[in-house]
């Protein structure tokens, strides 16, 4: 016996769906992202309440127990995760969403009976959800391992890899078809559902392994779109309109974001996903032979910056690791007080996911108008006295333009080489996330300041104050 009339249930789901749409709109801008996130959370809470009040729940205690356990695990994990690990958290949450949809659809499949046209359509939607949800789950686990550097960030290929991937995908599709056909026997065999889930997880692993570290953010976005599709399909299986709407929104937005990111990388999605199978050269891998570089002291860097007319700061993952965003903002304010024009050049995939650097710098109250996207900032490097690269490597690496076969070849980069002087803040000469050397480090106009980014910037700030 439901506590909520059908009319109020529909109205509640409609309001929740509107909240999700407004949330996506808010998340399109850094200035409104926090508000959009809160609106989306409110919509999710409303959806859960409506579901509880409008359904005759037979196992309410088990459901509440699962919610308590999930909350006990999720809240501390989300609150304690460092900004540098946010992409890993996103990957895991996305994978869990796909797995949840696959589990629900799998259970519903085993309960289906009859061989009507409606039953066949529902079974097809359920099989699709299990297949794609399992792919999303397993693929997200691999992206997590790559981002966490629990495994190599280089593309993982092996002889016959495309054949194994294609064969596994064919078997998964055949099992999905077999599940639908099996309805003629009066119901779906649970072993077929389990087999489909296992083979689909293998497909997910094989799907992500050939992707290099620099391309992982794009794959995360694609897997997010996959999860959205599974949620939408599960909405059909469960006859829940809100799941259909929410899943479609996630799937559509994830697909659009994936296409935009691929365009920003200057490559097709097919080359990102399967290009490793065609590569014969791995690019100038490091560390290789020792070559001379020009290193400097914090005082040297302070002089270069303090007497410049225009400085462009290029933040990267190293800035996030060192939690140096507040120090870089302090340095920028000191330079601006001396009459120096200071801008921030943000690459679309700076850090480990889209918007990573924007969120990090917003945390330090860096003005939004100072953050310049790649297309906007690139023409300004030619009139820049100093390009200060803090913990970035791949997004400024000339190999993207000069070295066919390199993992990042074809990716648009920030043209820091056009600046009069380039300063790199690095811990060591270790290659970037893509695993290749950066020839710009050996350019005569490049100065390297080695050490932890926050410690180095703190010393540079002190030196600028003493000028």
What do you see in this structure?
The protein is α/β, with parallel strands linked by helices and 467 residues long. The chain has two domains: 81-277, no CATH class; 298-465, Rossmann fold (3-Layer(aba) Sandwich). Helix content is 58%, strand content 7%. It is built from 17 helices and six strands. Helix 1 runs antiparallel to helix 2 (33-54). It is elongated and about 80 Å long. The relative contact order is 0.10.
How confident is the prediction overall: mean pLDDT?
A: 86
- The fraction of residues assigned to DSSP E strands is 5-15%
- Contiguous low-pLDDT stretches (5 residues minimum) are 280-288
Task: Record the strand order, biggest sheet.
Answer: 3-2-1-4-5-6
User: Any idea what the shape is?
Assistant: elongated
**Strands, count:** 6
**Structural class label:** alpha/beta
Radius of gyration: 25 Å
* Through-space gap between termini: 76 Å
Number of H- or I-type helical stretches: 17
Order of helices and strands: HHHHHHHHHHHEHHEHEHEHEEH
Total of domains: 2
Helix content bin: 55-70%
Biggest pleated-sheet summary: 6 strands, parallel
């Amino acid at each position: 016996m439901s506590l909520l009339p059908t009319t109020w249930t529909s109205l509640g789901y409609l309001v929740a769906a509107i909240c999700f749409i407004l949330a996506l709109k808010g998340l399109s801008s850094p200035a409104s992202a926090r508000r959009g996130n809160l609106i989306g959370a409110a919509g999710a809470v409303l959806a859960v309440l409506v579901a509880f009040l409008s359904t005759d729940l037979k196992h309410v205690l088990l459901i509440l127990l699962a919610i308590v356990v999930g909350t006990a695990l999720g809240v501390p994990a989300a609150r304690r995760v460092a900004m540098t690990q946010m992409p890993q958290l996103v990957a895991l949450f996305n994978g869990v969403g796909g797995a949840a949809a696959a589990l629900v659809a799998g259970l519903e499949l085993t309960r289906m009976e009859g061989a009507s046209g409606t039953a066949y359509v529902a079974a097809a939607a359920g099989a699709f959800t299990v297949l794609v949800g399992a792919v999303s789950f397993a693929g997200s686990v691999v992206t997590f391992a790559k981002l966490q550097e629990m495994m190599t960030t280089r593309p993982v290929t092996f002889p016959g890899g495309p054949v194994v991937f294609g064969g596994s995908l064919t078997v998964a599709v055949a099992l999905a078809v077999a599940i639908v056909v099996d309805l003629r026997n009066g119901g779906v065999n649970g072993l077929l559902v389990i087999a489909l889930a296992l083979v689909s997880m293998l497909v997910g692993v094989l799907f992500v392994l050939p992707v290099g570290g620099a391309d992982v953010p794009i794959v995360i976005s694609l897997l997010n779109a996959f999860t959205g599709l599974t949620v939408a399909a599960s909405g059909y299986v469960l006859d829940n309109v809100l799941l259909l709407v929410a899943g479609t929104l996630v799937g559509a937005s994830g697909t659009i974001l994936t296409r935009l990111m691929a365009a920003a990388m200057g490559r097709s999605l097919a080359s990102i996903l399967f290009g490793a199978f065609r590569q014969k050269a791995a690019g100038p891998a490091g560390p290789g032979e020792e070559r001379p570089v020009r290193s400097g002291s914090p005082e040297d860097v302070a002089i270069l910056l303090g007497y410049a007319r225009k400085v462009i700061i290029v933040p990267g993952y190293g800035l996030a690791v060192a939690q140096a965003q507040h120090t870089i903002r302090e340095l920028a304010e000191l330079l601006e007080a001396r009459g120096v024009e200071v801008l921030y050049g943000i690459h679309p995939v700076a850090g480990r996911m889209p918007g990573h650097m924007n969120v990090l710098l917003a945390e330090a109250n860096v003005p939004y108008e100072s953050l310049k996207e790649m297309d906007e900032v690139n023409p300004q490097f030619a009139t820049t006295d100093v390009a200060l690269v803090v913990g970035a490597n791949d997004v400024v690496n000339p190999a993207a333009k000069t070295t066919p076969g390199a993992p990042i070849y074809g990716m648009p980069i920030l043209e820091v080489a056009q600046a009069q002087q380039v300063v790199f803040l690095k811990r060591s000469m270790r290659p970037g996330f893509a695993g290749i050397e950066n020839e710009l480090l050996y350019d005569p106009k490049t100065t390297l300041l080695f050490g932890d980014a926050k410690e180095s910037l703190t010393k540079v700030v002190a030196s600028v104050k003493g000028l």
